[in-house]
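Help needed: design a sequence for this.
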């Protein structure tokens, strides 16, 4: 009879342990879902900050060539007598500068990466590695923009974007 009671106790203990374990697992999963939601909210906020900065860069970049043309023309006229400037050569230099400093392709790719990133945040499958890859690509495009743009305003915006990208990179490490 004593052995029978021990078996009943073991069964009761086993049931209690399973109840406690299931409760702990439910709380753990719930906590991870809440943490994941908060992470996504933070990352989305940062992505929208980046998006705003990219739009500002787009606005600045549209005037870069015109500003360079004005500066170059003024500088050439200061160095040479008026009317001595070879207009064709001046335009050629402006075109070369325009090609070398154009950041339109990088801006287009960066905007595409932002869009893809936001779409991934809504997926239910594991997305951590994909987000990490997109962050790397966003960083690469941002670096190129910074190295090409001859504008203090754009350089300052690039620094802001890189700061947000780094913050996102740290958060992405916590996402599956």
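Sure. Designed sequence:
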């Amino acid at each position: 009879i004593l052995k029978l009671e021990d078996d009943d106790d073991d069964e009761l203990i086993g049931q209690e342990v399973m109840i406690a374990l299931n409760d702990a697992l439910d709380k753990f999963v719930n906590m991870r879902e809440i943490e994941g939601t908060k992470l996504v909210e933070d990352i989305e906020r940062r992505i929208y900050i980046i998006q705003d900065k990219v739009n500002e860069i787009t606005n600045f970049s549209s005037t870069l060539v015109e500003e360079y043309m004005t500066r170059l023309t003024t500088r050439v006229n200061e160095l040479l007598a008026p009317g001595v400037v070879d207009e064709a050569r001046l335009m050629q230099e402006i075109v070369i500068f325009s090609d070398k400093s154009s950041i339109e392709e990088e801006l287009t790719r960066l905007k595409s990466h932002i869009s893809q990133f936001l779409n991934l945040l809504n997926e239910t499958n594991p997305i951590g590695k994909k987000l990490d890859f997109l962050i790397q690509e966003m960083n690469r495009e941002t670096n190129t923009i910074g190295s090409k743009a001859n504008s203090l305003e754009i350089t300052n915006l690039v620094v802001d974007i890189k700061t947000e990208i780094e913050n996102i990179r740290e958060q992405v490490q916590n996402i599956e």
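DSSP finds five helices and no strands in the chain.
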